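Hi P.,

Sorry for the delay on this. The queue was packed all week, but I finally got your sequence through. Input first:
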Amino acid sequence: MDQLVGDLLAPRYLAWLLQGFGVTLALSAAVCLAGTALGLAACSLCEVGGEAGRRAVAGYVGLVRNTPLLVQLFVWYFAAAALLPRAITVWLNAPHALNLGVGALYWPAYETLAGFCGLTLYAGAYIAEEARAGINGVRAAQRGAALALGLTPVQAFRHIVLPQALRLAWLPIVGQYLNTIKNTSLTMTIGLAELSYASRQVETETFKTFQAFGIATLLYVGAVAAVEMAGQALARRSRPAGSRR
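Then the structure:
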């Protein structure tokens, strides 16, 4: 048993897993930031964009939530590449680097871009619904009082309703962040070398299925637990002083 564990923890296999874990964390962070911005923008458009805005957001949310994420990733990876002009596709698939003097900033691979777009649109739809539920939890009198004080509807939404809605919706939004970390594993199907892809590589070469996926599971659990604890801590800090325990 010691020999089996030792073989798995050899530098080359450990490096594969850690590199894949780094890709998972970077992709998750980028998707959470972009998905939050997209979700809040969609929610705001639904609130202040009139009937056209509500219909557009409803169509977007309905399409994303009623389509498997795996299918959406395939659309971004295969269909988008087929629809783009060949010159753009070739440029996206070619390596590019920006020299910063102290290092180089590399353009992400096409599968990274496809995974980012698919996951961001998916997370944004759910975050938009969580934010909308938070808005529904804010008393209508809050908006009415803001309008009575002379604020415009947009100002009332931005300065009065939205901050309270985000406080109410924060923990459900954190739940979507946790889902995003786990959903990154689906990008292995389009060739992105994240943690699940790396653990599969280790398993294929070493035939140590339990060890390879066991370590991957521990890394996923650690990342999810860290994000959940951070979200809970921020939620406690954002509560009004009188409601803290």
